[in-house]
Amino acid sequence: MSVCQTALPLDWYQPPFTPYAEEFLALPDRRAETVLGWMDQYVPKAIDHFGDELLLLAHFYMGGEIVKLVERYGGAVSDSYVLALQALHNPEKRVIVESAVHFMAETVAILSHPHQEVWITNPKAGCTMEMLAKDHLVDPIADQLLERYGDDLLCVAYMNTSGRLKALAGRTGGAICTSSNAHHIVEWARRQGKKLFFVPDQHLGRNVADRIGMPQEKLVPLLSPETFGAGYALSDVDGGREALDASDMILWASYCGVHTVFTPEMVEHWRADGRTVYVHPESPLETVRAADGSGSTNFLWKAVMDAKPGDRLAIGTEGHFVRNAIEEGRKKGGDIVHLAEVPGSLAAGCGCATMSRNDPPHLAGMLDLLRKGEAPDANRVLAGDSGNERTGRRDRMTEDERKELIGHARVALERMIEITESAS
């Protein structure tokens, strides 16, 4: 079995990682036994060095079969909600290394204990949805909303945001949500009797509203951050301030480039083939309505693991996840396909390209550099860090600013945990 990962060009690697990348690129093939044999030169030494103080984490969407590599070395693989709680629930782990995107590692850092360190294998690993909702884009619009609605505005921030936006949720009495608990969080927020500001994914916002019975006409999307940035007034929004005043929930207009490719026509194609169709709720509303079910990556993975021999599924989410699902389905006697792989479609691709910037050389190099005490500071993740995924540059807060941010962001995260656990 080949490891599914296109090798990154060497100029994508930070200088301390270049030797590991050169070795990886020189391997004769990408078969699992070849890659794992190479990684065994480095990873077990780091595990022996740190012992029980080391915790490896990866998200389901990781490319290069990183999920399998992390599991091989005793790490944890899950969705963003479960990953966020790992430092909080494992105080004995002092060094936490995450193969995922920056906002996930930062969330772990926000909830971490003072003695814990959080590291990301590649600081350029980001999320396009979050990149369209940086604080310099959201804050000027949020300031206008706060000026108009004051204490009557409550922000619900999706996990796919920086700590700076999570702090905005905390400051406004709001909460964080994930795709697995967003309906519980928005239902709670609605009961507070305030105007909701949902950031950043407009599609998840619409799908959650649909699930809890909030009329679509009571949702107002803001202008596209791709086109307008933060340079517009509330009066420029479709329907103007009057539409915002009449709304129940205001939506930031970001989206996931992976999930917006899925269409109702794809759902109907595979249903006509006798398949049950499941999609992620970052997909467009019409696609979610057409599907047989929607939910988080844990929901989708459970559907795979619960499949019986002969079951036929189509799954609409990130490509690497679906490839792993297809493999698991075969083991169970099932038949699973990627939703976008319909005749004539070029949409399936290889999954989330920014998530895939974490690859075997980054994981092996990060652990080896940590063992040797030579890990680059750029890979250390502190609450409030704001990075540029294109350049790798980072803006780091002062200690006082960080403490203030953690105070607000933790309140919003802890409120999410409380609401979620009380609903389970």
Rg, Cα atoms, Å? 21 Å
Strand order of the largest sheet: 6-5-7-9-8
Please report which band the strand proportion falls in: under 5%, 5-15%, 15-25%, 25-35%, 35-45% or over 45%. Answer: 5-15%
Distance between the termini: 39 Å
Average pLDDT over all residues: 92
Number of helices: 20
Number of strands: 15
What helical percentage do the residues reach? Answer: 40-55%
Global outline? globular
Describe the model.
Helix 18 links the parallel strand 12 (312-316) and strand 13. The strands form 4 sheets. Strands 6-5-7-9-8 form a 5-stranded parallel β-sheet. A 4-stranded parallel β-sheet has the order 2-1-3-4, with helices on both faces. It has a 4-stranded parallel β-sheet with strand order 11-10-12-13, with helices on both faces. It contains 20 helices and 15 strands. It is an alpha/beta fold and 424 residues long. The longest helix is centred in the C-terminal third of the chain and has 25 residues, at 399-423. Helix 1 packs across helix 19 (360-371), helix 3 packs parallel to helix 19 (360-371) and helix 11 packs across helix 12 (202-212).
